[in-house]
Amino acid sequence: MAKVIFTAWKTKAQLVEVRNEFYPPPSYTGSDLRSHGCAVVEAWKLRGNVPHHVEATALLTDAILHDDAQRNSIFSIRATYSAAFCRFVTGLVDTKIHGVRRTMFQRATDLGLPASFVELRHEATHREPPSLVVLRKAAERSLEWLWDNFWADICDEPGATPALAHDDGVSVRAALCDALQPLAGGSAEPVSKKRKYDRAISVAMRLVSICNASGPGIRLLPGVLLEQELLVPAGRTLGDPLNDTLKEWSTVLLKVAESHPSFLRHLTEDMVNDLAFNTKDASTNPHSEALYLWLVHILTSPTWEFHRQSCPHSYVLQACDGSPHHWTTSLAEQVKKQAKKTSALPVARSNAQTRVSKPQTRPQSQGTTTQLSEKLLAHGWGLLEQWDSRPLGVVASN
Question: Is residue 320 within 8 Å of 281, Cβ to Cβ?
Fold first, then answer.
């Protein structure tokens, strides 16, 4: 019977993606993603089952990023280097952890770890912290050892996110198409709701990673979605419901919009342009009907209420007025109707407050709150207009 191994990452592609952030390929010319890799490993630690080599890589990388004399003191930098290096060595050679009564030097010899690492770990633990020059060199050698003894053995999967040129639109478009492939073709076998959701989240995280690594990614993504006709089911006829497609793809699009708020603006603009300029038999065109349903869903449904503030409502109305046909006229009516509902909300709330029979007022408490708010505002604090409450993720296993 095969042994079941639980990992903090859902797919091997996610581990490869983090490896490429810690050790970028020579052809990579994008932004520095090492801090993002450290944040991902920190999130994985909350799930558990993170290998020591992965955690040590994140700690050592974070110590290198902390090495900034203009922002941090020399003592703080040395302490961070020492803590990361000591944890790296101790996790490998500590006999109490591995349960075998052998010396640390023997354990280091078995693992191929330089004996100087054990000596430097002893010095940093029981004596004065080593000099900054020594610690920097030790961190560099440690990351090289981790690459040779752990990361280099991890092979790329076909689904792994490729290295991207920062402004290469062709490679970014190819990477986006590859990331969307799991959702491109329908599955012949029935899939559970949980598996559908997990698959959608996995695709969304890959898209976010690509957009983080490349500037044009967030602008190219809506075009790829529309060109590949991923948001419209294949073989759809006029009048067919779109509820399943809206539900499945909204999970992906919402996740991308959370990380890149401008995505929804670009997606809405591209959708309304496609709808407005495709005037050939528009009223009987299933594709135009699908775009209309998508735009109504984004611009009026409660699902998109939090992100809808970045939508270009005025542009949508102008595009509909400039190219009037059955679907653009209906869309403009829906947008105006939703705008009236939104503008009527404050009036309804004020009327509800006036109907309260015995309002409870506390002059002293209100004065204290106002004074406290002024103090907080003076120090850069502010009030969040709407609280974004989302549940934590679940532990994934292979």
Answer: no
